[in-house]
Design a protein that fits this description.
The protein is built from no helices and 13 strands. By secondary structure, it is mostly beta strands. The protein has a single domain, classed as Sandwich (Jelly Rolls).
Length: 162
C-alpha cells in the first residue's frame, strides 16, 4: 500500500492512515452486539454453538462474522426483532479440495433470505457452520440488514435463513 496520496483539494502529496478493523474473539454461547462495535469482525470460536443478537437496525451499522472454529452445535445470528428483516445473498459451497468426491456442482450455490426472514440458523453442516465462513451484516435502513458473504458447507447446501 502506498504511504502517500495526492490531495485532490490542494494538489499536494499527503499521508494517510492505515485502516484496521477491530477483531474480537467470541467464545460465549450467547453474545449481544452493541452499536458502538460497528466495524468489528467477530471471530466465532465455540464449536458447541453460539447465538449472536444484533442491535436494532440503524442505517450504517456494519458487522462481520467469521467462523474460526467449525461448529458441531448451532450458529444463530438473530436480528434484534422480527421487524428487522434480512435481504441480500450469500455464496454457499463445500470447503473441500477440488476434485474431492464431495466437491461437485450441486454443492455450490447461493441462499437469499425470504422477505420476513430475520435469522441465520446454521444447525447442520449443509447450512454454513464450517471454518472460514464469513458473513457481513450491514444495516441499510432502520429495519433492513443486507447480508453478504461466503458460507462453507459440506453435503448438499440448504438455506440457513429463517
Amino acid at each position: 500500500m502506498r504511504s502517500d496520496v495526492l490531495n485532490a483539494n490542494s494538489g499536494s502529496v499527503g499521508n494517510f492512515s492505515t485502516f484496521n478493523q477491530e477483531v474480537q474473539s467470541v467464545t460465549d454461547s450467547t453474545y449481544s452486539v452493541s452499536p458502538d462495535q460497528s466495524g468489528t469482525i467477530f471471530d466465532l470460536n465455540l464449536a458447541g454453538g453460539i447465538t449472536v443478537t444484533l442491535p436494532p437496525a440503524s442505517a450504517g451499522l456494519v458487522y462481520e462474522f467469521h467462523i474460526g472454529t467449525t461448529f458441531t452445535g448451532t450458529l444463530t445470528i438473530n436480528a434484534d426483532s422480527s421487524s428487522d428483516t434480512l435481504q441480500g445473498m450469500i455464496l454457499m459451497g463445500t470447503g473441500l479440495t477440488l476434485n474431492d468426491a464431495d466437491d461437485n456442482v450441486e454443492n455450490w450455490g447461493y441462499a437469499s433470505p425470504a422477505a420476513a426472514d430475520h435469522q441465520y440458523v446454521a444447525d447442520g453442516d449443509t447450512k454454513g457452520r464450517h471454518l472460514g465462513t464469513m458473513l457481513k451484516y450491514q444495516a441499510i435502513s432502520d429495519s433492513k440488514w443486507q447480508v453478504t458473504g461466503v458460507a462453507i458447507c459440506s453435503g448438499a447446501i440448504a438455506t440457513p435463513f429463517t
